[in-house]
Amino acid sequence: MGTATVNGPDGLPRCGWCAAAPEFFAYHDAEWGFPVADDRRLFEKLCLEGFQSGLSWRTILAKRESFRAAFSSFDIDTVARFTEQDVERLMQDAGIVRHRGKIEAAINNARCAQQLIAREGSLAAYFWRHEPAAKDLAEPQTVSTSAASIALSKALKKQGWKFVGPTTVFAFMQAMGLINDHAEGCVVRAQVAKARQVFQRP
């Protein structure tokens, strides 16, 4: 993702990566970078970032509704109860990415999420503790990992989570608003800054 901007359908500048696919504009304007404290959404995003590993976000975004249907709307307790039969069912589901390792990782991560919630109170409380200080942020969209994403990745792996490398975790932090990585000229950057300002950290 470069720092250049591209004009959206309304003629106003957006992050340059929106140019890669027309459906990116809606996702960029309504979701990407806005702070999230909902555990189900946080879990879903971390799972989808794991599924994206080696693929494009466009592929995952196009299949997102199918993923939600296949994984019970990413309800953590439900996914944690998935069995080997569910793995086989998901391997036959053409609407999602049929990668056994990633499917098994999502189920494994639901169980890890349960343990983390039992210990910390919520995923949100834990993830937001890893929000980097403004002084530690790089220029928007110039890096694909950071000290914060490396630390969170390491911590999650230690707890047994899978498909949570530093790049995956950094993309998760960008999308869930733990950092405002919208390009300097992007019209949504100020909206995200305002949303982060009034956001109640869990």
User: How many domains comprise the coordinates?
Assistant: 1
Mean pLDDT: 96
CATH classification class: Mainly Alpha
In total, the number of strands is: 2
* End-to-end distance: 29 Å
Shape by Cα distribution: globular
Fourth-level CATH superfamily: Hypothetical protein, domain 2
The sequence of SSEs as H and E is EEHHHHHHHHHHH
What is the radius of gyration computed over CA atoms, rounded to a whole number of angstroms? 17 Å
In the CATH hierarchy, the architecture is: Orthogonal Bundle
Low-confidence stretches: none
Put simply, the count of helices is: 11
Quaternary structure of the protein:
single chain
Please state how the strands of the largest beta sheet are arranged side by side. Answer: 1-2
Tell me about the largest β-sheet.
2 strands, antiparallel
Plain-language structure description:
The structure is a single chain. Helix 9 (147-158) packs across helix 10 (166-175). The chain is globular, with a radius of gyration of 17 Å. Helices cover 53% and strands 3% of the residues. The two termini are 29 Å apart. Strands 1-2 form a two-stranded antiparallel ribbon. Strand 1 and strand 2 form a beta hairpin. It is built from eleven helices and two strands, in the order ββααααααααααα. The chain has 202 residues and is an all-alpha fold. It has one domain (5-198): Hypothetical protein, domain 2 (Endonuclease III, domain 1, Orthogonal Bundle).
